[in-house]
Design goal:
This protein has about 350 residues and is an alpha+beta fold. The protein has a single domain, classed as 2-Layer Sandwich (Alpha-Beta Plaits). It has seven helices and nine strands; from the N terminus they run ααββαββαββαββααβ. The protein has an eight-stranded antiparallel barrel with strand order 2-4-3-9-6-8-7-5, surrounded by four helices. α1 packs across α2 and α1 packs across α5.
């Protein structure tokens, strides 16, 4: 496969043909990304299982606990449904929509914590659609755009192209993860495309190193519009579940380890701008209508907060319904029809929130 041909394919996929990259990848993305997948496969054997993701999204912000009007658990339970419903109902491809999301959590003062999200999607276009949703179109509660909520501060969000995503162990056991982010220093699209090709050549070594360290997942991401590269890697559970403390052994192992970048910074003249380890607060798995799919995983709860019956949000994927949790659920919550007595607040599986345009 010739280098110039590869760069053209990548350029189409990133939406850069004809000048500056577009916010939404082009209609030719699907075919181009298939060719890119072939190029990635040609790199040779890599340990683990390929996660079928070509797009990603990430957010980082600070949570201010003093600004919450209800516990964190039901807030996240409601957002999970409303946000995954958007990915399932309004983005393409829609099977299953969002592949996964990890919410990072690290308390950095008595009243604040570092949080956000690490998402994977089936397509690059889907990730771009979701980025627009989170940063512009999602309004809840009424009159408040998602990132303007008073409990959030200093959000940094962007969508990504996935150069590689490999898993070596169960996603349910991922209790901590580390994110390294770099400025590329490149001046234009074509320099970014040359960098993408170079990074793909580094992928097998990065994946092998992650596997050798006993990590459970690694993601290699690139954004040519924002001139960023990101590595995200996950540690499996190292301590038994305890109500007294989260998995501090997994967290500590990531903090103490040498960065996974394995010379990327010096080899490609990158500048590291972010290096943070978090606990996993919760992991979202593929969603099904009526919240009948896989329930979210809360690997460090307790002691971290999680949704419970009686918190005011009906969560069918957690086994809640009108019989098992009448405090939260009407008899019909989960049938995907918004009926009397239901609202996006109490039954987000059935009731829509308006999208901003």
């Amino acid at each position: 496969m010739g280098r110039s041909w590869f760069l053209v394919c990548v350029c189409v996929a990133w939406g850069c043909m004809g000048g500056a990259p577009e916010a939404d990848p082009t209609a030719d993305e699907s075919a181009a990304m298939e060719e890119i997948a072939s190029a990635q496969a040609a790199l040779g054997f890599m340990p683990g299982e390929r996660i079928p993701a070509r797009g990603a999204f990430s957010c980082d912000f600070t949570l201010d606990f003093t600004r919450f009007t209800e516990p964190v658990g039901p807030v996240i339970a409601r957002d999970r449904v409303l946000m995954q419903r958007f990915a399932l109902e309004y983005t393409d491809p829609d099977d299953p929509g969002m592949l996964q999301k990890h919410i990072p959590f690290l308390q950095n003062s008595p009243t604040t914590a570092l949080a956000g999200g690490r998402y994977l999607f089936q397509s690059r276009r889907q990730a771009a659609q979701y980025e627009e949703f989170v940063t512009q179109r999602f309004e809840y509660p009424a009159g408040t755009q998602f990132l303007d909520r008073p409990e959030f501060a200093d959000p940094e969000c962007r969508d990504w192209t996935v150069l590689a995503a490999r898993r070596f162990g169960p996603i349910e056991e991922e209790t901590a993860f580390r994110t390294e982010r770099f400025d590329t220093g490149r001046a234009n699209v074509w320099e970014e495309l040359h960098l993408a090709l170079q990074l793909l050549r580094d992928v097998p070594a990065l994946v092998a190193e992650a596997a050798n360290r006993g990590y459970s997942e690694v993601q290699v991401l690139h954004n040519l519009r924002d001139h960023k590269v990101q590595l995200v890697y996950f540690h499996p559970r190292a301590l038994p579940v305890s109500s007294e403390a989260p998995d501090v052994a997994a967290f500590g192992s990531l903090v103490e380890a040498a960065p996974l970048d394995a010379g990327l910074e010096s080899r490609h003249a990158l500048t590291k701008v972010f290096d943070q380890t978090h606990f996993t607060l919760t992991t979202w798995l593929p969603y099904a209508p009526g919240d009948t799919g896989q329930g979210a995983v809360w690997p460090n709860s307790p002691p971290f907060p999680e949704p419970t019956c009686g918190d005011g949000v009906c969560s069918p994927s957690r086994g809640e319904d009108g019989s098992s949790c009448s405090a939260d659920c009407t008899a019909d919550c989960g049938d995907t029809i918004c009926q009397a007595g239901e609202s996006p607040t109490t039954c987000p599986t059935d009731c829509d929130v308006p999208l901003l345009f």
